[in-house]
Amino acid sequence: MTEVSAHKKCCSCDxxxxxxxxxxKLSELFNMHWxxxxxxxxxxxxxxxxxxxxxxxTCQTAVxxxxxxxxxxxxxxxxxxxxxxxxxxxxxxxxxxxxxxNAQVQKMMHVKHRHAVFTLPHDLHPLIRKNKRxxxxxxxxxxxxxxxxxxxxxxxxxxxIISVLHTFGETKELHVHVHMIVSWGGEDIVTGALxxxxxxxxKFGFLQDKFRCKFEDELIRLYDTKKLSHNFTxxxxxxxxxxxxxRKGWILHIEPPMQSPKDVIxxxxxxxxxxxxxxxxxxxxxxxxxxxxxxxxxxxDECNRPKENHQTLHYKDFFPRLLQHVPLPNFRIVxxxxxYNQKSTINESNLYKNTNTEEVQIEEPSALLCKHCxxxxxxxxxxxxxxxxxERTEPFDASRHEHVIxxxxxxxxxxxxx
Length: 418
Prior knowledge:
alpha+beta, 10 helices, disordered N terminus
């Protein structure tokens, strides 16, 4: 584990002694209050939410198992706890994201890319809660089609698009939007040659209206085919609701083109499959409350950057607010369109060169070198905590450990003889 870089003063005096700032884990709050919350939940707990909560609680604990390793030279014993690998877990989702970034950037076209965000009006939230899967599918498809159709028509280019669904805002309230990485260029529709879009100007109003119309058409189709759960009295009532949506905020945000593969990696990593809350943002867990920091976009500093603020919530309010963002079962929150679709192919000469790609390094616990001998450890056995999990454990085999002791004695004799 790396050392904590953030520090604070040890006391209120003027001494220079520094102590590490405490880091909190989300599992602490779940371990303290989840069982009690389940007896009287604020909202109905879905099966996938139970699964996510249990994964967070057992991640990196003996419940999932502990692998024991031994240095082949000195016999030093180390252990590594199993991870839950759940995509809602703050620690596991980040490592999974880094691996995905390194693999994905090598499949991208050698052109500039832009980061775009499509956001649904908050007046849609009651309907979204009743039709999550259907509306999320519509949002991801229509937002990608908006850019894809516009670029194909205006520039005669087939772009590549990576879309990532996010359902949360800074304070973890429902805030449904899609982050998109759009290639600012692509392969010519006729010749297949790589072409770059030279202009940065975009008619935001045109794309916003195009997106709104596509989304509303799909929503109306859901209603007409009786696939939409709702409380509308009749079609006229529903159409009046859609008409009111036209006057709401259909927000489109587009950032300037990103110049290098490193920029692309940064954005993909920041807005890809990360968990709803990052543990480094948790500043306090005490009693029945949790406090986390967030960026307040309504209040900005002199440099127009959002100020940092803190939110404190009781666990009865925090759990339902957090768990409403657990991904639906078998729902792909990351999707690929245009030239980045798996069914499409990109000419090898149009891809980023691997030599220009800076990979994000990931520390693998199983590959940690022995601090004494600087060599890779060897696997010995796995142990499960049967008090917490009713599963059979692999029986301890002393013969696996015997060769380590023998080798260690041989090394000692060789050192003495030398």
